[in-house]
Amino acid sequence: MIALDTHVVAWLYESGAEAVPARIAARLDTETVRIAPPVVLELTYLHEIGRLTVPAATMLAHLSARLDVAPEDLSAADLFAAAIPLSWTRDSFDRLICAHSAALGIDLATKDETIHAHHDRAVW
Question: Which pTM does this prediction carry?
Fold first, then answer.
């Protein structure tokens, strides 16, 4: 299983597999994909403020039709408990997205250098 950071979801929607390194694209073809609820919320926020032209639901439906996207089964309580120790960031979305990956014990596909410096499950 592999989780996707917000920018990865947006890039995959816009450009397809060419938007990510070949090793990530290969994993997307062979593994189940998880998209954390905070990613959905951040995509929604970015659409509301005009940074994205397409709603989150449209992006997710597009990706779900092309990838093996698993339904979310992590409770909010477990997500927040995993986020509490992640004091290296003040970005609430990054904190919750990394907590999601950590709580499930799965890699997080992200290009974010700050996340790579602090989250041992970050891949790119």
Answer: 0.95
